Amino acid sequence: QVQLVESGGGLVQAGGSLRLSCAASGRTFNSNTMGWFRQAPGKEREFVAVIRWSDGTIYYAEFVKGRFTISRDNAKNTAYLQMNSLKPEDTAVYYCAASARYNYPRSPYEYGYWGQGTQVTVSS
To answer: Mapping DSSP to helix (H, G, I), strand (E, B) and coil, where does residue 70 land?
Structure first.
């Protein structure tokens, strides 16, 4: 089992920034990639970004390129999502998830472990 704990959500004004963290514990060797997803009320969970633990290779959803940055600290088993230039449409619950897949999994079904989610609210 892999346990994931997110932190860093909150309320921010449009144009502001937040940094989300996701700490992994347990059988972390089962995870090759860590992804971030988000889910707004009434919408499906959507892919945001993914990073490979071994070499830091990254893949972003088109709508966050240039605004969000995913990173990881292998020594701490922690992944981060730095979110800048936030917009009201970024309001959602953000989830981190761990996958055994190696090549940039982007479907929620490719992830076996999920955090509890953290609320991000961007006011206009």
So the answer is: strand
Beta-carbon contacts of 9 under 8 Å, excluding residues fewer than 6 positions away, are 18, 20, 94, 118, 119, 120
* 24 touches 4 (CB < 8 A): yes
CA distance 94 to 20: 9
Q: How many angstroms separate the CA atoms of 121 and 18, rounded?
A: 10
Tell me the C-alpha distance between 31 and 54, whole Å.
Answer: 10
Token pair 């633990």 is found at 53
| Token representation of residue 82 | 């730095």
pLDDT of the chain, 124 residues: tens digit per residue: 899 999 999 999 999 999 999 999 988 777 899 999 999 999 999 999 999 999 999 999 999 989 999 999 999 999 999 999 999 999 999 999 999 999 989 999 999 999 999 999 999 9
Identify whether the C-beta of residue 65 lies closer than 8 Å to the C-beta of residue 124. Answer: no
